[in-house]
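Appendix B. One record, verbatim.
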Amino acid sequence: MGDVSDVDGTVEAVVLDAARDLLVEGGVKRLTIERVSQRTGVAKTTIYRRWRSRDDLALAVVLEMTKAVVDTPSHHADTQGKLVSLLRSVVTFLADTPMGTVMRGLASEVATDPRLGAAFRDTVVAMRRARLNQVVEEGVARGELRAGIDIDLLHDFLFGPVYYRLLVTGMPLEEALPERIVDAVLPSITATRD
């Protein structure tokens, strides 16, 4: 590709693709700006203008991959279907793509590096939480869910089991897992009928 002076959409995509491949191959420790530069032909200075460090670049990869999951439209009209759809997109994404490998490699870095952990929460987690909040607000408006639901806790209840399996137990992220999680959580947030 040769040296590129501006990071436009094409160059950014090439850099993120190379960074993702390096993360899949060896986690954050394998990812360096120099290796990305070697793979892409993009000058290190160009990469550093957009991403200050390998951690910033790793987070950009995760954010880019997460956007695809969060933006997956749900064709369900009811809250239960929307929650299952949101959870299923995450489970499928982590189970069937390099994202699961990337997240396993990045998890310890997110846990031990306060700056990277804060950036992860402020981008990836905040994006997913905002989408969940939208689903809940729609469910409350339809009378399916009770008002005053703690979104942070609901987020933990829904997504915690997925990441616990991915990072701790190694149990499979099977196809039925989203329905099972939603079935367990939904009674605690459903509106009561008088």
